[in-house]
Design a protein that fits this description.
522 residues; Serine Threonine Protein Phosphatase 5, Tetratricopeptide repeat; two-stranded antiparallel ribbon; mainly alpha; globular
């Protein structure tokens, strides 16, 4: 309404002026500086920086709310079988746990909208930044910014293609006049082709080898490339040996960098260092989504137990994502990751964060517990939870190399050492290299992935690309289809349809070109 009134006012003023000797055309053609549009905004290097910063910021949709007592990130944990809930208020979350979700599930639509918002901003940056005049000395800055946008677009499409399979492949900014304003879905092969092109361009964009400022680095690009190749080698593309080799080679580049720069990139010595604020974007953290209470606080608070006084806030917490007892108990005896307040779990804490110790009655996720912000013995809590959300850790690079090498039919010393490093930190004894066959070593690495990356949004994608699920009772691996999750009453079985998520009903209503729905969903 404001713009409408402004235009009426201009017409009234021009009507009066037209009675005199001058025209009002120049006045009507003026740009409104308060109403920035893409065709007038991208004119300065600072605009390019702002565009890329906005794209980074949009990755935080992962932590946005998805109804009462829930957030978007829980969509990747609930179906795995390693988590359950202590609350029942959110029907969408309950349906994810019970494997009865459909196109009306809010988390699914939120993921779609969030990813395509990142893609839209990245597309704008990729198209507009090349036309912005930079001083000659700052041309590397332009190349870097375009590379960052391409990395973030690849990051978003990599999620999308794994969640839904064939998805719209949009590479240009969209308007209502765009020919593909109602895009159809592109085959997964084409989506992966763009992902690789974007990541390869980012790899050559002149990034620092490692960054502590939250921006993507060359090692982060190489790590994500390894992950993409590993995924393409498995289901559904089944590229096999050629892509296992590409995954191993790219992971080894990161490993070799770590060997040459161990104080820069490495495993943390202790698990607690993984959730220390002063170590964000450092050492093991290759790429994280950035959080700060000034803009948006750390979003994984649904890991807190329901209505237990583990923080300065007293009796609080939703407990809407908590470990299943069966998964917790499946870890090897003596695994440091299960030791109370030392690894991934805690079974006791201190009243209101700093008081008397009390038992929680069950294991809860300690992996993201920010002691400095929430309270601990002798610590006055800051009440400002500024932890980041992990996307790629160096630990994953080690296990990606080990797995890819095993798939190539050889358990070499490098692969064994990479696997053993993960177990050494957990204070576990590792059988000698000669006791493994490539097949048994591969399964050992898979098992380690389940234990190491629990509750990091990784396990679900491992289940899909392997078509295997860890069996907590046998310690082996079941076929995906037919495996029963123990996190719901009766044990819901995974079906063929669960290899993909359904498309959101509202999206399909808005864009009929997205049809048909993924198999098995109404």
């Amino acid at each position: 309404m404001k713009l409408y009134n402004k235009n009426i006012y201009k017409l009234m003023v021009c009507g009066a002026i037209l009675l005199g000797p001058t025209s009002c055309s120049d006045f009507l053609d003026e740009k409104d500086p308060s109403n920035l549009q893409p065709d007038i905004f991208y004119t300065l290097p600072d605009h390019a920086e702002a565009a890329v910063a906005a794209t980074y910021a949009d990755t935080r949709f992962i932590g946005d709310g998805a109804g009462i007592f829930s957030a978007n990130w829980q969509m990747l944990e609930a179906p795995t079988g390693t988590a359950t809930t202590e609350t029942g208020q959110n029907s969408d979350l309950n349906n994810l746990y019970a494997l009865i979700y459909d196109g009306n599930t809010g988390h699914i639509s939120n993921w779609w909208n969030g990813l395509y918002r990142v893609i839209a901003n990245a597309n704008l940056a990729i198209e507009k930044i090349p036309g912005i005049p930079f001083p000659a000395a700052n041309e590397p800055q332009k190349t870097r910014l375009i590379g960052e946008a391409r990395f973030l677009r690849a990051w978003a499409y990599f999620y999308a293609v794994r969640l839904w399979g064939d998805v719209p492949l949009i590479t240009k900014p969209q308007t209502t006049d765009s020919e593909d304003f109602f895009p159809s879905r592109a085959p997964q092969e084409e989506v992966y082709k763009l992902i690789l092109e974007d990541l390869q361009a980012a790899e050559g964009a002149g990034f620092a080898d490692f960054n502590t400022n939250g921006r993507v680095s060359k090692m982060a690009v190489k790590a994500l490339l390894s992950k993409v190749y590993l995924t393409m080698a498995g289901f559904p593309l089944s590229k096999g040996a050629s892509h296992y080799k590409l995954a191993a080679d790219k992971a080894l580049e990161v490993i070799n960098f770590s060997k040459a720069n161990p104080s820069t990139l490495n495993l943390f010595t202790t698990y607690k260092e993984l959730h220390q604020e002063n170590l964000k974007n450092r050492v093991e953290h290759l790429f994280q989504i950035q959080y700060n209470t000034v803009v948006q606080a750390f979003p994984l608070n649904d890991f807190f137990p329901n209505f237990k006084a583990v923080t300065y806030a007293g009796l609080s917490g939703t407990g809407s994502t908590v470990p299943t007892t069966s998964f917790y108990k499946s870890y090897e005896t003596g695994d440091l990751r299960t030791k109370d307040q030392e690894g991934w779990f805690y079974t006791s804490y201190y009243t209101n964060g700093t008081g008397a110790k009390f038992e929680l009655g069950a294991p809860y996720v300690f992996k993201y517990f920010n002691i400095a912000a929430l309270g601990g013995p002798g610590i006055t809590p800051t009440r400002l939870n500024n932890l980041n959300v992990n996307q790629i850790r160096y630990a994953e690079v080690l296990l990606m190399y080990a797995e890819a090498q095993a798939e190539l039919g050889t358990v070499n010393q490098e692969a064994y050492d990479a696997y053993k490093r993960i177990r050494d930190r957990a204070q576990l004894k590792t059988p000698a290299i000669g006791t493994f066959t490539p097949a048994s070593f591969k399964e050992a690495v898979w098992r380690e992935r389940w234990y190491e990356f629990a509750y990091e949004g990784i396990t679900w994608f491992d289940m899909v690309r392997l078509r295997k699920v860890f069996n907590e009772e046998t310690k082996g691996f079941d076929n995906f289809v037919g495996h029963r999750n123990l996190n719901v009453s009766g044990g819901a079985a995974l079906q063929e349809k669960h290899l993909l998520f359904p498309l959101g009903i509202q999206e399909m209503t808005n864009n009929p070109s997205l049809r048909p729905q993924n198999p098995g969903y109404k």
